[in-house]
Amino acid sequence: MGSYGKLAKRALETDMPVMIQVQGLIRGAKNIMSLGQGVVYWQPPKQALDKVKELVWEPSISRYGADEGIPELREALIKKLHQENKLYKSSVMITAGANQAFVNLVLTLCDAGDSVVMFAPYYFNAYMSFQMTGITNILVGPSDQKTLYPDADWLERTLLETKPAPKLVTVVNPGNPSGTYIPENLLKRISNLCRNAGSWLVVDNTYEYFMYDGLKHSCVEGDHVVNIFSFSKAYGMMGWRVGYIAYPTEVEGLAAQLLKVQDNIPICASIISQHLALYSLEMGPEWVTDRVKELVKNREILLEALSPLGEGAVKGGEGALYLWAKLPDKYVNNDFDVVRWLAHRHSVVAIPGSACGDPGNLRISFGGLVEKDCRAAAERLRRGLEELISDGMVQ
Ligand SMILES: Cc1ncc(COP(=O)(O)O)c(C=O)c1O
User: β-strands 361-365, 351-352: how paired?
Assistant: First the structure.
């Protein structure tokens, strides 16, 4: 039995993961299609999987490895950071995915009681990482109504007015759940504001390769900037759990403190997964971008399906895997009811905006289904939205 009184406030006061709630909806229904989870439909490169198969009997695979990651992968990533991201003064720590990278950083850079900044709509796991580490003073800034870019004027005021200055500012580029990218000039401005205020800037670049319509992803570097990356989506490696932190080499003590956290959570990322990451990286970024190009069709199909919501209702989609769709005003306080209704009545799932600090919206993912299935899911979504608008949530 037991009682709530025996459980930690840090856990009790953390939001329930929206993905777990949505997975519950999926499990409870027959023949449901998901536009909810942020995943890609492809598997890792075949050549990389074949090579990894050969490694399973190698003794080092079953031992612990260096906390910061296997040297071959770290070396390859330093090269990649130079060539692709123009990051020249960064060191690498490999983690069990980008989410663990973020938790490592929060534990290394922030104390309970600090204030931090993020922008709505925000990435729900980042919000929860703050909550569960005692950082309850989470200042949530607005995004531009039209573009969904983080509002840098608000940030400038907030960094000036908040005493002591917020410890950390975080953005996702391109965004989850917004599906918008942060243009280079804006990212530089955010970085300069953080540097001047003495705040860390943590940029989550999980979707660095997921850029459309000729737009280019860029990174910023500095002694106050930490970048996070992931193999999950790019190489279809969600279940292998590999991400990494690119942190400023010259900041004294940072590497040592990061190692303390790492040694107490995964010790090291799975060794076989790190080898798969290395072999996948050897395929080159084109392996990823060739697949990302194909997602444009899914995006078009889903944009069409969202058209019943009316002109201007859908934003994002210029990066990452997401469209951000505004529901009619009367659903501003019950977007999760709409999600449940869509699941039960129309067998299609999305993520409610309320889980991202921006109620009254839906996040639609266009990465998880092959085109044929995406069409089928889009058809359900379209019918559902038409009914929602004409008759409401009829049972
Ligand atoms: C912005 C962002 N960061 C991190 C993650 C988690 O990535 P990983 O699988 O590398 O932990 C996701 C996954 O959806 C994401 O969207």
Answer: antiparallel
Query: What are the backbone dihedrals phi and psi of residue 141, each rounded to the nearest 5 degrees, phi first?
Result: -90, 165
Is the Cβ atom of 97 under 6 angstroms away from ligand 1?
A: yes
Cα 9 to Cα 32, 126, 240: the distances in Å are 35, 18, 31
Q: With the CA atoms of 80, 246, 178 and 12 taken in that order, what torsion angle do they form, in degrees rounded to the nearest 10?
A: 140
Of the candidates 306, 358, 366, the residue with the CA atom closest to the CA atom of residue 336? 358
Please tell me the distance from the alpha carbon of residue 315 to that of residue 323, in angstroms, as a whole number.
6
- Atom 16 in ligand 1: which residue has the minimum CA distance? 176
What does the pLDDT look like over 44-62, one tens digit per residue?
999 999 999 999 999 999 9
Separation CA 337–CA 331 (nearest Å): 9
How many C-beta atoms lie closer than 10 Å to residue 347's C-beta?
A: 18
The predicted model scores a pTM of: 0.97
Peptide linkage before 71 cis (omega within 30 of 0): no
Collapsing DSSP states into helix, strand and coil, what is residue 291?
Answer: helix
Query: Which atom of ligand 1 lies at the shortest distance from residue 37's CA?
Result: 14
Confidence of residue 2 (pLDDT cuts 50, 70, 90): low
CA neighbor of 330 nearest in space, from 346, 349, 309? 309
Compute, in angstroms, the gap from residue 356 CA to the centroid of ligand 1: 14
The rounded distance, in Å, linking the Cα atoms of 245 and 361 is: 31
Banded model confidence at residue 19, pLDDT cuts 50, 70, 90: confident
Query: What's the CA gap between 106 and 136, in Å, rounded?
Result: 12
Q: How many helices (H) and strands (E) does the chain have?
A: 14, 13
Q: Report the C-alpha gap between 368 and 37 in whole angstroms.
A: 7
Please tell me the distance between residue 37's alpha carbon and the centre of ligand 1 in angstroms: 11
pLDDT in tens, 293-324: 999 999 999 999 999 999 999 999 999 999 99
Q: Is 172 in the pocket of ligand 1 (CB under 6 A)?
A: yes
**What is the torsional sign of CA 170, 171, 173, 178?**
positive
Q: What torsion, rounded to 10 degrees, do the Cα atoms 283, 285, 288, 294 define?
A: -130
